[in-house]
Design goal:
With about 350 residues, the chain is of the alpha/beta class. The chain has two domains: about 210 residues, Isopropylmalate Dehydrogenase (3-Layer(aba) Sandwich); about 140 residues, Isopropylmalate Dehydrogenase (3-Layer(aba) Sandwich), CATH 3.40.718. Helix 6 packs across helix 7 and helix 11 crosses helix 12. The longest helix is centred in the N-terminal third of the chain and has 19 residues. The structure holds 3-isopropylmalic acid and magnesium ion.
Length: about 350
């Protein structure tokens, strides 16, 4: 097949890990006779520095013209003054909204070789295999009014949690469809005991659940869910939730896997289009040192092959490569225990390329 991929390397370690993702996609292209054409565009802090805009129009246009987007990371201390008028994160939010990326898929899976990397007990984390499906273009991130409301009493500010039945319904359908390909269990997470938007969430979620009688369904309040994620994480299959709850719970769940350096994500629009990115940030402290773990980006590229391009076998090969390489003991610095030998960002990428070429 032939496909156009837009790269948004972004800030910090973003360019280094995206380069490894490209290397892996090219190796897959060669092995399975596909052609991937790459275009790079600016997003995040680097785009602010070069154009004053965290998501220049040309970058958005490049994303509209392609089949899938691979993003590194945006942000860093240089641009993080909360008083600044332009922030890298605005670029990311605009990208999500403009491209209609309403369903954010964040799988959390434990590699047998890494069970000891978590701060939790081995017996608790070795059962973990879940996917968080987070609504990404609505809720409190986008509801209006939003902003400063200073008045004669002093400073004040407002954000609004707003959901429509259409937004909730489509997110739940993506979640149920995914659950059908897995262990057929959905946990919908809300705060229905307090929030009106959560009561609507629950109402709509129940209606969609009735369309999927073969999938086991439960609702949990978000505070309880944050507790169960630590107490019995192995019980979760698909967690479906709103924008802010999903933001918080997915960081919590990522710690079950020990390192954020392993976790990929997909942000999907209606249809097949998607943006793929590692869940870790720009890690400015290690940027440019060649030590970042590229596996989350490489696994994001595998998700792209599987979801947007329907290339199951190709995605499987990448995932097997990662599992094998970890089992053989190769570690980037974030995964190593003190005293253990480490490989660099590019060496880790090369190991994956080699597996793709030779099957070991
Ligand atoms: C994430 C991040 C973003 C979010 C930030 C960088 C805007 O935390 O992708 O989870 O809150 O969605
Ligand atoms: Mg987050």
């Amino acid at each position: 097949m032939y496909a156009k991929i837009t790269l948004l390397p972004g800030d910090g370690i973003g360019p280094e890990v995206v380069a490894e993702g490209v290397k892996i996609l090219n190796a897959i292209g060669e092995k399975f006779s596909h052609e991937f054409e790459f275009t790079s565009a600016l997003a995040g802090g680097i785009a602010i520095d070069e154009t004053g805009n965290p998501l220049p129009d040309e970058s958005l246009e490049a994303c509209r013209q392609c089949d899938a987007v691979l993003l590194g990371a945006v942000g860093g201390p240089k641009w993080s003054d909360p008083k600044a008028n332009v922030r890298p994160e605005q670029g990311l939010l605009k990208l999500r909204k403009e491209l209609g990326l309403f369903a954010n898929i964040r799988p959390v899976k434990i590699y047998p070789a890494l069970v000891d990397a978590s701060t939790l007990k081995k017996e608790v984390v070795e059962q973990v295999d879940m996917v968080i499906v987070r609504e990404l273009t609505g809720g409190i991130y986008f509801g209006q009014p939003q902003g400063r409301r200073d008045n004669d009493q002093g400073r004040a500010a407002v954000d609004t949690m707003y959901y429509t039945e259409a937004e909730i319904g489509r997110l739940m359908r993506v979640s149920f469809d995914l659950a059908r390909q897995r262990r057929k269990k959905i946990t919908s997470v809300d705060k229905a005991n307090v929030l009106a938007s959560s009561r609507l969430w629950r109402e709509v979620a129940h209606e969609v659940a009735a369309e999927y009688p073969d999938v086991e369904y439960e609702d949990i309040l978000v505070d309880a869910c944050s507790m169960y994620l630590i107490r019995r994480p192995g019980d979760f299959d698909v967690i479906a939730t709103g924008n802010m709850f999903g933001d918080i719970l997915s960081d919590e769940a990522s710690m079950l896997a020990g390192s954020m350096g392993m976790l990929p994500s997909a942000s999907l629009a209606e249809g097949k289009f998607g943006l793929y990115e590692p869940i870790h940030g720009s890690a400015p402290d290690i940027a440019g040192l060649g030590v970042a773990n590229p596996l989350a980006t490489i696994l994001s590229a595998a998700m792209m092959l599987r979801i947007t391009f329907g290339l199951t076998q190709e995605a499987d090969v990448i995932e097997q490569a990662v599992e094998t390489i970890l089992a053989e003991g190769y570690r980037t610095a974030d995964l190593a225990i003190p005293g253990q030998d480490t490989v660099s960002t590019t060496q880790m990428g090369d190991l994956v390329v080699n597996f793709i070429k030779t099957g070991n």
